[in-house]
Write a structure and sequence with these properties.
The protein has 262 residues and is α+β, with helices and mostly antiparallel strands. It has one domain (5-260). The protein has helices at 5-30, 62-91, 108-112, 114-118, 125-133, 147-160, 239-255, and strands spanning 34-41, 46-53, 169-172, 175-178, 184-188, 192-197, 203-208, 217-219, 222-225, 227-231, 234-238. 31% of the residues are buried.
Length: 262
């Protein structure tokens, strides 16, 4: 067995849970928790499109949040497992005590602290350089948006409470007026995104009424997705895509240590 196989199987497990999440999110979306209604304001000659929640909608199922926690746990465990293997490869024996792990710090002073350095005692000098190079603080003011920091924050959150998610993440493909003769006009351009948590009564679009609008219908495709309310410094990012990115990042990071094992 290759020394990294334990890390790899944990990453595979994370991918398994991501597939679970994808299916659960799809099932949630297919229930169409929101629809859009058009309110005509005669005084201002406007049509205002409002998101309307299904009366039975009770928020994102908690099972989706639990699956997200399973993913981040496996990824964090794979990183800690990597350090354990690095110590064994360099010293021939397991790390002493219980402080071994992959340090993740958003500032250089924190990484230089005794607590951080105690986590990698026993790794080779080359491995220590690689671990330091992966630290979020190298991104400066964007340190909290780095994937490894996002993973760190999600994992810490999951250990103490449910990871908060937004009701939905939504986009408007377009708002299209369809006239009685079959012709149409696009009011909002295709793929205009709205990175806001969707809620009951939220205004989606506002259209000025014009002559000839009597009897027209509106085509407003409304897409849903589940998003983390906040993950590190990342706000309202769809859960599935963020966890996929984090998983692939951790996989590449671990494989970059391959030459530590002969």
């Amino acid at each position: 067995m290759h020394p990294l196989d334990g890390c790899r199987v944990k990453i595979d497990r994370a991918r398994f849970h991501i597939d679970e999440m994808r299916a659960s999110v799809r099932a949630f979306i297919d229930r169409s928790p929101f629809k859009v209604r058009g309110d005509v304001h005669e005084t201002t000659r406007e049509v205002v499109f409002i998101a309307e929640a299904d009366p039975e909608f009770a928020g994102v199922p908690l099972g989706i949040t639990l699956i997200a926690g399973e993913v981040v746990h496996q990824l964090r465990s794979a990183l800690d497992h990597l350090v354990w293997r690095l110590v064994v490869a360099n010293t021939g024996r397991p790390p002493p005590g219980t402080k071994s792990g992959f340090p993740i710090f958003r500032d250089a002073a924190g990484y230089a602290s005794q607590r951080a350095q105690a986590m990698i005692v026993g790794v080779s000098a080359q491995a220590a350089v690689r671990i330091e190079a992966a630290q979020p603080y190298h991104a400066g003011p964007d340190a909290e948006k780095v994937l490894i920091w996002v993973l760190h924050e999600l994992n810490n959150t999951d250990k103490h409470r449910m990871i908060p998610v937004t009701t939905t993440y939504t986009f408007v493909g377009h708002v299209r007026i369809i006239r009685t003769d079959g012709s149409f006009v696009d009011i909002l351009p295709p793929q205009e995104e709205m990175r806001h948590a969707l809620h009951d009564g939220m205004e989606i679009a506002r259209v000025q009424m014009t002559d000839g609008m009597d009897g027209v219908t509106f085509d407003i495709p409304l897409g849903f997705d589940v998003a983390f309310d906040q993950a590190g410094g990342v706000i309202r990012h769809p859960t599935t895509s963020l966890l996929i990115d984090a998983t692939e990042y951790v996989s590449r990071l671990i494989e970059s240590f391959g030459d530590e094992f002969s």
